[in-house]
Specification:
The protein is α+β, with helices and mostly antiparallel strands. The chain has helices at 64-72, 75-78, 112-135, 157-169, 186-195, 257-270, 275-282, 284-297, 312-321, 346-368, 389-399, 414-424; strands at 7-13, 17-24, 32-33, 47-48, 50-53, 59-62, 82-85, 101-103, 109-111, 145-151, 181-185, 219-225, 230-237, 243-252, 306-309, 335-338, 341-344, 378-382, 404-406, 429-433, 437-445, 456-458, 465-475, 480-482, 505-508. Helix 1 (64-72) packs across helix 8 and helix 3 packs across helix 4 (157-169). It binds adenosine-5'-triphosphate, 2-acetamido-2-deoxy-beta-D-glucopyranose (2 copies) and magnesium ion. Belongs to the heat shock protein 70 family. Keywords: ATP-binding, Nucleotide-binding.
Length: 518
């Protein structure tokens, strides 16, 4: 039983960054956070979701350590090792199998399950060490811990199942059905964190306001602006402080890393004639470092032009094509060659954000126009990407007349801290809106007026004519379903001598379906 655990550990396994927080199972008011990167002169709440395996496919490093180690490898070594980053997005909107493979930075492949489970194993071991140091108490038995792993709310069931499998491989749980692992939804976790924050917990906002959870009826939208996905959910505070979902989870794969992608495309455009591709191919670690530097610069809150150091080897590859490297910049708008650096204008920088911001605003406009959303008062921005001034300003411009827009001080940590609270009490979310229509395949007495003759079957015992493969709806898309809600149905076998029945469960995005589809 989950209740016997000593500790609750929540892991936010992000597309760009990962981290964890924990607390005693008996105490919700003291959540311990862990800081990363001190050995490298950094101090952050999450560490890059990057993992490095050696040529024998053995796990070597995770996080900043993996980034630094990989960047220090000579190119000849780097070509033989396996370096993975941004792999969480491989579970979004794709067909997932337990045997699928992932491409490393250099194109070499490893099973996805290995990459995910070794990452989770690293986080698990790190967490158990931290707990031991903090409490002078060894966690002998993994049963002492309830693990919460967060996933985007817009992930489908197969991706969630894959994370559970990876957690089992990593030794977080002993069997797939264990209650010691809770899969939490990222925007939901953030909502749980935000609802109990005092007003001082948010970036400056005028006027007095109670904690959300102390004002039943408050309705708000939470936007988790991550590196990979933008994940949106809407909640109403109930009288007992629990949450009722107002709208099914929505969003898409347009997180902060689309900004990096756009920047990379821009570099490709500048260093045309295959220069960038050749560079990326032959100097993967240097290229990776350049992207890492850009990632830091895009977080700047100043509206100044940005200067990015151009690495020696990129200059070398470029100069082989044109002796004067500034020629690459002649027909390019928004960038200039500046004495060994690439200068990018603030306007150009903003344009890298445009796609993500447009998609997010459109999704919000669509959701907020729904009839059940007309009384929403707040928009909460969470996740690391919500720290972006460019993103925040645009959202503010679009929505400030109708909504209060809030951002918790620790926008990136809101997810993992809320996940700890969710681990303490999963009943906090009292009801959810079904994202799909679910049903079961059944047979019914055949009726020529409504049924397809191809679906007609005749029972062998008494020539009973029935229609097979019919879809019987159990839950409809958009239906409100309470947590632990039970519904009862009775089914009887078709054949009188039948001794077993196999139930096939199906889901669809449609409101209803006549037949199960194959
Ligand atoms: N001040 C900032 N300005 C712009 N972007 C930022 C800023 N701070 C963080 N980011 C971006 O936010 C993203 C990381 O946010 P976060 O840690 O919430 O994502 P994640 O959890 O790794 O991703 P996901 O939730 O999609 O799996 C990165 O793309 C990072 O570059
Ligand atoms: C350029 O690339 C070569 C070969 O990959 C590498 O050995 C060298 O360190 C790089 N030069 C610089 C200045 O980084
Ligand atoms: C809180 O109230 C809602 C409905 O108002 C109910 O469904 C839920 O079970 C309650 N939760 C708790 C923990 O009492
Ligand atoms: Mg996240």
């Amino acid at each position: 039983m989950a209740s016997k655990s000593l500790f609750i550990v929540a892991i936010d396994f992000g597309t760009s960054y990962s981290g964890y927080c924990f607390s005693l199972a008996t105490q919700t008011d003291q959540i311990r956070q862990v800081y990363w990167g001190q050995e490298h002169g950094l101090n952050t709440l999450k560490t890059p979701t990057c993992i490095l395996f050696n040529e024998k496919r053995e796990f070597q490093k995770f996080g900043y350590d993996a980034v630094m180690k990989y960047n220090s490898l000579p190119s000849s070594e780097a070509h033989r090792w396996y370096y993975f980053h941004h792999f969480k997005m491989k579970l979004y909107n794709q067909k997932i199998t337990s045997h699928m493979k992932l491409d490393a930075d250099n194109g070499k492949r490893l099973p996805a399950l290995t990459v995910f489970s070794e990452s989770l194993r690293y986080m698990k071991d790190h967490a158990l060490n931290t707990i031991q140091e903090a409490s002078y108490q060894a966690v002998y038995d993994t049963d002492d811990v309830t693990w919460v792993v967060t996933v985007p709310a817009i992930w489908d069931a197969s991706a969630r199942q894959f994370m559970r499998l990876a957690a089992k491989e990593a030794g977080l749980i002993g069997d797939m059905l264990s209650e010691k692992l809770i899969i939490a939804l990222e925007p939901e976790a953030a909502s749980i964190w935000c609802k109990q924050l005092p007003q001082e917990g948010f970036v400056a906002e005028g006027g007095h306001r109670q904690k959300f959870e102390e004002s039943p009826g408050t309705q708000y939208v939470v936007v988790d602006c991550g590196g990979g996905t933008i994940d949106i959910t809407a909640h109403e505070i109930q009288k007992n402080q629990s949450l009722k979902e107002l709208h099914k989870a929505s969003g898409g794969g347009w997180g902060g890393s689309t900004v990096d992608e756009n920047f990379k495309e821009f570099l490709k455009e500048i260093f045309h004639e295959g220069v960038w591709d050749e560079y990326a191919q032959n100097h993967p670690t240097e290229c990776q470092q350049m992207m890492y530097n850009f990632g830091l610069q895009k977080c700047s809150s100043s509206k100044d032009d940005l200067y990015l150091h151009c690495y020696h080897n990129l200059t070398k590859v470029a100069e082989r094509k044109h002796k004067d490297i500034s020629r690459f910049f002649k027909d390019v708008e928004g960038a200039e060659w500046c004495d060994g650096s690439i200068m990018i204008t603030y306007e150009k920088m903003k344009s890298f954000f445009a796609y993500s911001i447009r998609q997010t605003i459109d999704a919000l406009l669509e959701i907020l126009s729904k009839p059940e959303m007309t009384t929403v008062q707040y928009i909460l921005l969470v996740g690391g990407f919500a720290s972006s001034i460019i993103l925040r300003e645009e959202i503010y411009e679009t929505f400030r007349e109708q909504y209060h827009i809030l951002c918790p001080l620790e926008a990136q940590a809101a997810i993992v801290k809320g996940a700890v609270l969710f681990g303490h009490n999963q009943q906090i979310v009292a009801s959810r809106i079904s994202a799909l229509t679910y049903g079961v395949a059944v047979c019914e007495t055949f009726d020529i007026a409504v049924h397809d003759t191809q679906k007609k079957r005749v029972s062998k015992a008494d020539n009973y004519e029935y229609c097979t493969d019919l879809f019987k709806k159990l839950v409809g898309i958009g239906d409100l379903v309470a947590v632990d809600e039970v519904a009862s149905y009775s089914f009887t076998p078709v054949e009188p001598d039948q001794t077993s029945v196999a139930f096939g469960f199906y889901c669809t995005e449609k409101k209803a379906a006549k037949y199960k589809s194959t």
